[in-house]
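BUG-292 | component: ligand-complex export | severity: low

The export step for C2E jobs runs without errors, but we want the raw record kept on the ticket for reference. Input record follows.
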Amino acid sequence: DTYALVILFSVVVCLVMSLLIRNWLTATTSIRSNMALALKRNEFEPYFQPVMNVASDRCTGMEILTRWRHPTDGYVSPDVFIPLAEESGLIIPLTQQLMRRVAAVIASSPVHWPEMLHIAINISAVHLSNRQIVDDCQTFLQTVGDKNIRLVLELTERQFVDVTDTTLEVLAALKQQGVAIAIDDFGTGYSGLSYLSKMNIDFLKIDQSFVAMIEEETTTRIIVDVVIDLAGKLDMKLIAEGVENARQKAYLLDKHVLFQQGYFFARPMPMTQFSLYWREEHARYSASPIAL
Ligand code: C2E
Ligand code: MG
Ligand code: MG
Ligand code: MG
């Protein structure tokens, strides 16, 4: 009897699993085949999230985060479609389209910032190991022209495993153009730390998982302190991401982490809202012109 029950149970489990796997497979396949079409139809939208200098309470930059508004499936998260775009190679045309759109918005904005505004684009490892990225940045910089823009490329530590000769050449060419490099999600990767000495990195972004635990865990505070120390000694600037409340902001400010980003300041916003935000910030700056 027990034997029969175990068999029955196993059969049920297998059935449920195969159904789940089939569903998941059809979902990902349809997302994948939809993506090329979506690119043609301009369904990928750049969202803009401000990066603040909390010492001066000013916006010093924007991170560009992609959103996919599928006409029938609705909102698809970048955590779902970015990995699929990386697999299929579509990530390169997707990023190029994104950079063209962002550059066009900035070029057509009537505002000049008092200081250099940082525009950060997330770049996948496949794109960085391809010389094409150098031309893509060139195009971006030519389009924005005389605006005070510093282009920052964010490379996530999760993917960043080996630094090849091509990568180093690409990075050197980017440096020559004045493009800055940021390591995203710092502290979550499996890549060791040796790349820090091989590459000339401008920014480290403290991963939001650390920021989220700053208040609760002594261990997290120790890790964050060590990262702050490391960045200072290696002459890299820090950006804290995922700052959600005043206590996290204050803790980090106290440790001189001046660049902060998160829902506490502003959520990622669409183009129209961003233009408005940009205009308001500029009015605020003009009203009280202090150095950043
Ligand atoms: P990321 O680059 O580390 O971006 C930060 C993520 O945290 C974004 O999620 C952002 O919306 C979210 N976030 C910002 N502030 C807060 C906060 O205070 N609290 C919390 N809980 N979350 C916050 P999003 O937009 O869903 O993007 C997820 C990831 O997808 C990004 O992580 C990035 O790795 C990737 N991604 C997004 N757009 C692109 C893209 O255009 N290209 C590439 N290659 N990757 C992208
Ligand atoms: Mg990022
Ligand atoms: Mg991140
Ligand atoms: Mg992340």
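Assignee comment: Attached the raw record above. Residues 49, 65-66, 77-79, 82, 95, 98, 122-124, 154, 156, 184-185, 208, 241-244, 262-263, 268 surround C2E (ligand 1) (CB under 6 Å).
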